[in-house]
Amino acid sequence: MTTTTTSLAEAAFGPHPELWPLPAATSQRDRWLRAVAAGGQGRYASALTDLGEICRAAHPGPLLSLAHSTRASFLRQLGGHDSARGWDGRAWAAAGTDPEAGADALVGLAADALGVGRLALSARLLARAERLVDGSGPARLPVRLQWVSAELNMAGGDGAAAVVHAERAVELAASVGSPRHTVKSAVVLAAALCCAGRLEQARSVADQAFGDTERFGLVPLRWALGCLLADIGSAVHPPAHVVAVRDAAADTVRRRGGVWSRR
């Protein structure tokens, strides 16, 4: 692994999600890592440029599939579940027999279905994804599976089950070594605790993660936590501060090429 690839991997899935500027890619895999890292910071224009290069150059296969899944995840982050579904479908078609790409595509499709209220379909897709996720694959995949499983339970009104999945995501994220995955798991846990009626604990989890989003430059997650804390109240920050941070994060996403969608 080259020094560049190592740096990009640490920014995308490792301990340095705040790294910017990102080093220039030396391979198509590097381009994907750059896109993942940039997307975590809300730098969607940069990320989409790299994904576009992959899509123009790559043949059907795992890398193209991962690029499509990543584009879909950006759309979901911005509220576009309907649009994301098409890209996740392309990801599934390109994945072939690769378990990482296939699992990413299926989890994405499950999240898309959940976002448009198709809960039974989401559950079936998660079950298929779970069969592809085992101990030999990337450590991030079981975490993603737990995120969407928790969200599915929240959508179905089962807060207690959602908390179980979210707490499992937090445990698994600790082994990934990625602050981005740790913070996203905290976002899911805080939401699950709200669903279970445990608002004091939800505030505690969300307040701690809110600080981490600033430290690591995780703008989309900063916006998500700002939305949550604006609803339930922070135990640390006054309401005006939370709203100001939330709105500033949304504006930063727009300036960096993100387009918000209602679906």
Keywords:
mainly alpha; Serine Threonine Protein Phosphatase 5, Tetratricopeptide repeat; TPR-like_helical_dom_sf; single chain; 13 helices
Please tell me about this protein's structure.
This protein has 263 residues and is mainly alpha-helical. The protein has a domain at 25-133: Tetratricopeptide repeat domain (Serine Threonine Protein Phosphatase 5, Tetratricopeptide repeat, Alpha Horseshoe), CATH 1.25.40.10. Helix content is 76%, strand content 0%. It has 13 helices and no strands. Helix 6 (99-115) packs antiparallel against helix 7, helix 9 (159-176) packs antiparallel against helix 10 (179-195) and helix 11 (199-216) packs antiparallel against helix 12 (219-232). The protein is globular and about 50 Å long. The termini are far apart. 54% of the residues are buried. The mean pLDDT is 96.
